[in-house]
Amino acid sequence: MPQDRLDELIALLGPSRRGAYRIAQYAILAAGLAAMAVMTVPGVSPTVGTWTTVVLWCCLGFFAGELLVKSWPSDKSARNYLFTGAGFIDLLAVLPIPLALLIGVPKETAWLLASLWLLKLAPAVPGLALLGRVIEQEARPLASVFVLFLFVLMFAAVALFVLEHAGQPAHFGSLPQSLWWAVTTLTTTGYGDAVPETYLGRVVAAMVMICGLGVFGLLTGILATGFASEHRRRDFVRNWDLVTSVPFLSNLDAPAIIELTHMLRRLDLAERTVVVRRGRSGDCMYFIASGEVEVRVEPQPVRLGAGSFFGEFALLDGSPRTATVMTTMPSTLLILQVADFRAFTAHHPELARAVEKEAARRRGAPDYESHAGMQPAPQLLDDERDDD
Amino acid sequence: MPQDRLDELIALLGPSRRGAYRIAQYAILAAGLAAMAVMTVPGVSPTVGTWTTVVLWCCLGFFAGELLVKSWPSDKSARNYLFTGAGFIDLLAVLPIPLALLIGVPKETAWLLASLWLLKLAPAVPGLALLGRVIEQEARPLASVFVLFLFVLMFAAVALFVLEHAGQPAHFGSLPQSLWWAVTTLTTTGYGDAVPETYLGRVVAAMVMICGLGVFGLLTGILATGFASEHRRRDFVRNWDLVTSVPFLSNLDAPAIIELTHMLRRLDLAERTVVVRRGRSGDCMYFIASGEVEVRVEPQPVRLGAGSFFGEFALLDGSPRTATVMTTMPSTLLILQVADFRAFTAHHPELARAVEKEAARRRGAPDYESHAGMQPAPQLLDDERDDD
Amino acid sequence: MPQDRLDELIALLGPSRRGAYRIAQYAILAAGLAAMAVMTVPGVSPTVGTWTTVVLWCCLGFFAGELLVKSWPSDKSARNYLFTGAGFIDLLAVLPIPLALLIGVPKETAWLLASLWLLKLAPAVPGLALLGRVIEQEARPLASVFVLFLFVLMFAAVALFVLEHAGQPAHFGSLPQSLWWAVTTLTTTGYGDAVPETYLGRVVAAMVMICGLGVFGLLTGILATGFASEHRRRDFVRNWDLVTSVPFLSNLDAPAIIELTHMLRRLDLAERTVVVRRGRSGDCMYFIASGEVEVRVEPQPVRLGAGSFFGEFALLDGSPRTATVMTTMPSTLLILQVADFRAFTAHHPELARAVEKEAARRRGAPDYESHAGMQPAPQLLDDERDDD
Amino acid sequence: MPQDRLDELIALLGPSRRGAYRIAQYAILAAGLAAMAVMTVPGVSPTVGTWTTVVLWCCLGFFAGELLVKSWPSDKSARNYLFTGAGFIDLLAVLPIPLALLIGVPKETAWLLASLWLLKLAPAVPGLALLGRVIEQEARPLASVFVLFLFVLMFAAVALFVLEHAGQPAHFGSLPQSLWWAVTTLTTTGYGDAVPETYLGRVVAAMVMICGLGVFGLLTGILATGFASEHRRRDFVRNWDLVTSVPFLSNLDAPAIIELTHMLRRLDLAERTVVVRRGRSGDCMYFIASGEVEVRVEPQPVRLGAGSFFGEFALLDGSPRTATVMTTMPSTLLILQVADFRAFTAHHPELARAVEKEAARRRGAPDYESHAGMQPAPQLLDDERDDD
Questions:
Q1: CB within 8 A of B51, min separation 6: which ones?
Q2: Which of C:213-232 have CB within 8 Å of B?
Q3: Among residues A6, B228, C251, D28, which is most buried (max CB within 10 A)?
């Protein structure tokens, strides 16, 4: 995973500055792209022109520096980094512009290559790999739809050329022009620069539009089907290790773990994020896969670590949240919604019993601090205030 | 739930006037927005201008009064109401316009803030929360599609700028203009104000349109997938409590209840609504979760309360409805369709047996009035008339 | 079901003329609508004008006659027919035009009411009821999407009015004009009659277009979800009675029947339709729910009636079809595809054993004519020819 | 299957030239269509005109030759080939153009028939049959949506004709013109050649656009639903025979095979394709259904044939790939993803045990060459290099 090395670099700057660094990166990217756009506007004042150039060079410098740092640490892995996907993208962001300027490409044209900087977003968006996989998985039906698209396109273009080229030589005078009309119509874009005028031409055009809806529907159907199955698979893999890392859950038998893995949703939280707020109604409970949370109870807050759970009262008796819970470090939680809790415990009452037992103990035991994985008993929270 | 307090206020006006109040609210909202639209039309006669102003002030007054009443009752909850989502929306509907007029914003511009009144629809539409949740759940793949969208947008804009800016400086003379073209094309809006004219530009444009279909398909796939799962979950939660409140059903074992909860559909009915009409064919039976219905049979109508069921003959032998059934108060019914009834009873014959036993007793027993949950025997209904 | 009475009428004309009558109805409908369209074209020759009037009056006469016949037979049911949905549509097709002409509406305008004739298609399209049910079922989320649509529409219109009305008073000079632009953009129709020209206006417009994609995606997701579940339910109900009417299948236990009902697809065939053709590869077997088929084997064809099955060799050993099978009367078949056959028999080997036993008997037994439900043994078919 | 005979012909040219022949076919097809398009452009130089004619005749000659060869071998099957779907398409590609030229159709028009060549893509795209089947399966709901479409179209056209024909006789002067507007609007194509200008006309138009979204959504929902179920069925059939041909898997009981068949994905690979690369992370294992792979290990590569599996370490302990694996001949692999492996083995631990046993043996046994179906033990791979 090329992303790991990027994270490693950012981690050097300090654990809590990761998000800040990411935002700075995006801001620099946005500034660079904006400057590139401004540069192409004819008639900007020389001052603005100078500033856009400065901004562009600064961005380029930043990306070059980033690349240098990333590929520096140890010479062995450095060579590797440049050959990973992320490294190649970083290289693509830095090299082409100076090269183009060197071989004499005009400044305005050379800087258009800054649009390649946008590729730097790709590794930060994990879903792109998922999308790529869906497209790869569904390649055959997608190819079929594309061939269907080509059929309709070609026959529509030929038909309109035959019907309209006498009346509108400017718009349907050749097959390429007619194809252009067909593609704008079949995708339902409809620029309106070329519009059939004969009765028969309009009937064909209407059929093309309806085919356009159909092609669109098929495409959507294929992508939706593929996306749903791939998405489910991916979440399963991501959640599996988390589920088995919670001792409370890993005692379940294998089919139960499978079922639970499909139900749980992962939630990655930064530190000091409020998870549940006292007094709000709740429809889910939380298992802590990693990290730590602080339960704000009187007389003093309680900390729950990995393997604990909280928020179960809302599931058991529908009561509102009895305490505000906040993360103390970057944490990963697993959310079990009430619908899934009930569906799951119907088949696996052992989980319900275990949760209930723990909940009963928490309600009755004021000395909950001595036990991991507990939520404070509600009676202790009477005079606690919502600190929002 | 902020909606509860709104309901409480309306309930003060009388139980059956809730719907009327709601309709009045919508009418006032529509009148206000229409007046706002008319005000902006240049050249309206002074009379119309005066009237629109009057209507707008009346609407504002109504909303202000509503806010006042809602936040009045007890000072403690009043402060709370203003800090809920609905209270904030109500505040947003009342305050900005007078403030804008006070600080000297021209009348025509200030009243445009009346468009904020539309937000008052939000709490009345429970599905919006569901949609928000889908978007939150699917944030990662949606972000991926958005980045994909940005990629195509940027590369299309750069390509068209390079290819077309010499030939059409008015439409592709700068990158921002080219981006505008790209966004109208990629979303298949296709205004037609800027259209590529070079061969290569049109080939790129055709690819952008096809990408537009693909982006659209992915977006739909993600939203459809997320929506389906979130919708199912929500219905489950809503139905669960209802199912377990029907004694007849709550005796089933937990997995059966889960299964049934997924099958039943909730139906909220106002009072005096006809549920089934005698002689019509039927494909479902009804469980009464709350409220009461009247079965119109001879010699006199029978009332069934919460926990009863009716309409089972249609499921058992496909016969038409033997009596008209009407609610006597606002009721919540659970509908079990014939397909689901058969699928369910195949695995859980005990429900079928219980329903059959009750049905047999109803058919044979003319003294059904003495039993809760019964439907009159069909032979009693011979001379009953459909009173529609 | 109003459709039943229509069928009854057509059945009077003879059993095999039902299809012909239906086609004639559609032809008359199409001719009437075409004549209506021609009538509105300015500058048609008087001859054509006369002919269109004649065609229109003929169509009206036909529909009036149809209505008369349908509501004639017995005075009791006649009154009923006019009050059914189909009767109301028939009335709507016949009455308004003469009434409009009587009260002095110009001829061209009065005949536009002939567009109501199109409603006569509604009862013939059973899926419309299904669509109506999906929309009713998903009313809440659809309302949410509609409110979302209104929000975006209103805020986009107000924003564009503020940004553009100074520069383009002709297109954004009032809020209604701006709303018109917003609706064409948000639905991605994009006429291009009003196009924002300021930078900020174009940024807002781009966001509106993207919201348009989103609204569209949500709408599709809701309808797709609702449609899938409603469609499955409906097929189940339609297939259930057929499955239980096949003795061979009705011996299965209830869960197996449920499972099979979900798998089987219904096929309604006219008489003398070829079901399978000898020598073709096959991927499904057929159960005869009603009707009769003829298996073209030597020395003489065999007829199989309701309750029989055929085409099982293709499922058992993947061999091509061993004989051509043709219906001898309108028949209803249930198709079991190979994928479903394997999935089903994995859990219910008794069906596979029964089919295999019968197949083995057919292969080995030349005297298959004496048994119902058999397919001729392949060795008998050696010199039979494909009579296509 | 007509495709089989095409494959047979190509196989005559040598096993590895199949792909090359396919590419050549596509190139000739593309060249022919491009020449046809160029021919219609007015004002091309005579030289270009000559060349396009030459290219077109060459393409025609190639297709004629292909047809001749295909229908040559044995006179019995030759007659059959011309009557298959593929044969008919081949005939359609060759005959019409000379015939048209013979009967005196102008050259430019006659060559437009070359667009029929595109049909030759159809047999090469297996998914088209699937799409056809979805449309056949969903014919009833699709017809319903189409009728709905017609309703909206007709009423919108009549409404706009009434509202706009006085003001815009050029665009809404007749019902056909109004229908043209309606179809471009309802499909959200929106050419913008005819735009309503009255207030009421625009309100109707807005409703038509929203209906357009709805029609589109329903269409997509139907196609998505149908496509998903048909796709799943088809994959099942294709994978079933492969799964049962792997001895390791065919020992499982029937329900387990069904389950596994739904999980496995087929992968057809050309010879000398890298399947997994050493050091990469892996999320699936592979079963060899047919063909052979070479595992690049020291001291010398190992070959695994049909029935073997590899890549299981990644599933068992999440370790990166321990060796590069490459096909030595065209092979068909079955992919089992980690999510499915875990879900499957939860219910069928016997597969996990068998895989684990084999994996343990491979890790411990350096003499793995003597056993089929083994992957080299990782310790042997220490000094092996990734040969990419």
A1: B35
A2: 213-214, 216-218, 220-222, 224-225, 232
A3: A6
